[in-house]
Amino acid sequence: MSLTLPWQRPSRPLAHGVPPDHVRAVTAGDPVDAPGREPTICETRDTDWLRLQTLVRMPAGLDTRALLDLNAAQPGRAGFAPGAGNAVRILCDLPLLPHQTGEDPRIAPAMESIVRAMRALNGGPIGDRHARASLIAGKGVQSVDDRLPTADCRTPIANLCAESGWPCVERAADRWAVELEGTTRFCQAVVTADGPGVRLAVALADWTGIDAICDQALVELLIAAAGVFRVARPGISIEGLRRTALLVAWLPTEDVATELATALSALSVAAASMIGEIEALRDPRIAGEYLAMNARPPIAA
């Protein structure tokens, strides 16, 4: 199996077409540090997607692995990816709707999601290791301002999946399992009600007692995938000694009807691209070769 990952990094933002009033609403009074400039939201648009993203500095005491914790635990559309040097990209992907006219009503909430993510990274509810662990353990967030408002999810997920051709099984109240397409083994997205939206999570692999070099390689693979795939953000969930590699997507309740099928397709593409590499990296020899190819020295035993 080739260790060359078949992913293409997204192009650098060329357009800055987000309405200026939205940009001011995001940056005014927000004390988030950015490399050499105030944080601004820029836009990258292609045939099918709109990507909103900003660049901030990695806070002292954190490393790129922290981004995987954040991606797994942070509610909202925004996700985290490494930037050049000590920078962090906070990004949000919106599928372009075929008949959208005028200003897209999803942009303002997407901006708010990016702001919440900025605060989380910079000392907010999961801005340090202890607070991140508290959030992952379900102990809540530190600031009321950073909470997503709670709301019941009344979206008929099973009906939407059936209409769009996705096999779906209801596991419990407000919890569904949807079989993904194109993967080399059986793979599901678990869809759960999450405040004013739904969270889609795909478990790619889990491990407890593998070699340190394999653990490092798996983490580096997930970090390399951050920001590459639309909507799907790689993360790690930790429960005791068990670590689970995830792909996560999040949709507001009001957008589930129009975006659920697109999100499931995006998760299928990402999962199909990563599962083979993840299985291969459980082999210490292959894991060492992967780290060497990516100029990552293995952790000393």
How does this model look, in words?
The chain starts with 19 loop residues before the first helix and ends in an 8-residue tail after the last helix. With 301 residues, the protein is an alpha+beta fold. 34% of the residues lie in helices and 24% in strands. The protein has a single domain (20-293), classed as Yope Regulator, Chain: A (2-Layer Sandwich), CATH 3.30.1460. It has helices spanning 20-27, 64-73, 107-121, 129-136, 157-164, 212-225, 253-280, 284-293, and strands spanning 42-45, 49-57, 79-82, 87-95, 168-172, 175-179, 188-194, 197-207, 233-239, 242-252. Mean pLDDT is 77; it is low at 1-38 and 125-153. Helix 2 packs parallel to helix 4, helix 2 crosses helix 6 and helix 5 (157-164) packs across helix 7 (253-280).
CATH class membership: Alpha Beta
Mean pLDDT reading = 77
Total DSSP helices: 8
Structurally, how many domains make up the residues? 1
CATH architecture: 2-Layer Sandwich
Sheet-strand content, in percent, reads 15-25%
Q: What is the straight-line distance between the termini?
A: 26 Å
> Which class of secondary structure composition applies to the elements?
alpha+beta
- Sheet with the most strands? 6 strands, antiparallel
- For the largest sheet, list the strands in their spatial order: 5-6-7-8-10-9
- Would you list the SSEs in sequence order as H and E? HEEHEEHHHEEEEHEEHH
Number of strands: 10
The CATH topology name reads Yope Regulator, Chain: A
